[in-house]
Every structure is written in C-alpha cells, then in structure tokens.
Write a structure and sequence with these properties.
alpha/beta; Rossmann fold; 2 domains; six-stranded parallel beta sheet; 10 helices; globular; binds nicotinamide-adenine-dinucleotide
Length: about 280
C-alpha cells in the first residue's frame, strides 16, 4: 500500500475532544447541549445507531433523551412528539432515526422539525441554506467528508472532485459542500456512462454508492484522494466499502479505510451540529 491512510477514528476523536472542551465552557453559562433521538419500530441496525448516539451524548456531557416508539405509532402521534420537542428548551437538536415504518411519510416528519433543531440537516430550509452558502446545520456524513479532507491538508479548493452517487443523504449534499469549498465538481450516478474514465480525472473521488468494491484501482488517478462512504456487508459478514481498497490504495495518495474512515465522523458531526444549535448559531 502506497497511499496514506485517512484515519477517521483519530480525526473523530480530535473533534470530540474539541466539543468536550466547548461543552465544559458552556456549562459555566448554564447551557448544556441537548439531543432528542426518536426511534420508531425495532429495526436492529437503527437500534445500534440510536444506542451509539445516546452513548456519544453521555461521553461528551450532553443532555439526551431517547424516545423508543412502537412500530404501530401513527404519523399524528409522531408529529405531536416532534411538536413538543420543538418547544422544549432543554432539547437543541432533534433526530428522527430513518428509515421510518411505511405508513409514516418521511417528508412530513422531516418538515415538522424546527429548522434550528434540524441536526440531521435534512429539512428543506437547511438544504436551501446550504445550497446558497448561508449558515446552516449541515448533513452529518457529507460534513464529515469535508472535515476529513481539510484535517489531512487536502483542501478541495481548485481540485476536481468526482462524486459517485447522488442521494439526498450523501451524494448530492457532499457535492454541494465540495463546490462550497471551491472544488470543480462532477456528479456521477447509475446512468453515467464511462464511470471509470470520469473517475480517473479526479483529484478527489468520493464514492457513495452502496456497491461493494465498485471503484477499482485503475479508476484512480495516481496520487488522488479517495473517500469511501460506502458501508456494505459481505456474505462472510465482513464490512467493505464501495472502493476496492487493496487495489486503490496502491495508486491513491490518500485513502479512507472501511470501517474506520468516514463512519466514525457521522455521529461526531451530529454532536457538533447539536453544539452549534445549543449555541444558537443554527438557522
Ligand atoms: P442510495 O442508495 O440512496 O444512493 C446510491 C447512489 O448511487 C444513487 O444516487 C445511485 O444513482 C448511485 N448508484 C447506484 N449504483 C451505481 C452504479 N453502479 N454506478 C454509479 N452509481 C450508482 O445510498 P446512500 O444512502 O447515498 O448510501 C451510499 C452508501 O453510503 C451506502 O453503502 C451506505 O451504507 C453508505 N452510507 C454510509 C454512511 C456513513 O456514515 N459512513 C452514511 C450514509 C450512507
């Protein structure tokens, strides 16, 4: 392997230490950042994510509440709870764990969260503010990608970034954040012809696809930075990304591992958003 490793876990720990310091300072002015997490139903992966979020709150000195609701909860009941949390002063951030049961309309739920408490950054107003470059609570995984680049000295400014994937959760927002950071951005997706050829032009490749080892070594320009957002479970139970790590790490200049790259950044950026919301800096 010739590429340098982008150690997401280490960078995430650094940011958490910075957050902890800020929380300690805030305490003297009587403010404790608070996060409310809502889980509807018993999806096993979601249960793990929610537990990890509550644990992060505990570790960093945040106030937290977890609302575990049955899979039969009606949309009206969920909206009523969000309404209450919107008005609750001890809660600065509200996160509804996705996916939701089919009878609940995701958009109605996201739209109901007060914009200043939208720590997932999925509310249309948050997205709009991000697009026009205003202050906003940024979506956590894309914001984590930008932190990884900046904190390893790989500023996107003036670089050609190729993003593979255009979901509302990762591909689209990470493309817009790279643009905001002055990269020239190409967005690829399932209907892009000559994906390998486009990818080879990139100084920065961000893969957010959900297809194990899609991005091969010969898709990478020598020395490029490779950010692998993908988390895929292989038949043998192991996790792997959207990038063929063994191949790509021989060509790239920098690369994120899976696990231990982008993954650890997501919850850390959620905590950073909650802190920002508590400071009243969020819109
Ligand atoms: P998604 O399914 O919503 O979107 C996938 C995107 O990839 C789509 O835009 C689609 O057009 C594109 N795509 C699909 N097949 C393609 C192909 N063969 N060639 C080119 N493009 C193709 O997925 P998502 O929510 O954006 O997640 C993407 C990956 O990132 C998944 O593996 C997911 O588990 C992972 N993820 C990780 C984190 C994290 O914290 N590390 C957070 C969110 C998502």
């Amino acid at each position: 392997m010739s590429a340098k490793l982008i150690e997401g876990k280490k960078i995430s720990d650094q940011i958490r230490a910075e957050i902890k310091d800020e929380v300690a300072k805030l305490k003297s002015s009587g403010i404790q950042p608070g996060l409310a997490v809502i889980l509807v139903g018993e999806d096993p992966a979601s249960q793990v994510y929610v537990r990890n979020k509550a644990k992060a709150c505990e570790d960093l000195g945040f106030y937290s509440e977890v609302h575990r609701l049955s899979a039969e909860t009606s949309q009206a009941e969920l909206l009523e709870l969000i309404g209450r949390l919107n008005a609750q002063d001890s809660v600065h951030g509200i996160l509804v764990q996705l996916p939701l049961p089919k009878h609940i309309e995701e958009k109605a739920v996201i739209d109901a969260i007060a914009v200043e408490k939208d720590v997932d950054g999925f509310h249309p107003v948050s997205v709009g503010n991000m697009v026009i470059g205003d202050d906003a609570l940024l979506p956590c995984t894309p914001a984590g990608v930008i932190e990884l680049l900046k904190r390893t000295g790989n500023s996107p400014a003036g670089k050609h970034a190729v993003v593979i994937g255009r979901s509302n959760i990762v591909g689209k927002p990470v493309s817009l954040l790279l643009l905001r950071e002055h990269a020239t951005v190409t967005i690829c997706h399932s209907r892009t012809p000559n994906l390998a050829e486009v990818s080879r032009q990139a100084d920065i490749v961000v893969a957010a696809v959900g297809v194990p080892k899609l991005v091969k070594g010969d898709w990478i320009k020598p020395g490029a930075v490779v950010i692998d957002v993908g988390v895929n479970r292989l038949p043998d139970g192991k996790l792997c990304g959207d990038v063929d790590f063994a191949e790509a790490s021989e060509v790239a200049g920098w690369i994120t591992p899976v696990p231990g790259g982008v993954g650890p950044m997501t919850i850390t950026m959620l905590m950073k958003n909650t802190l920002k919301a508590a400071l009243g800096k969020a819109k």
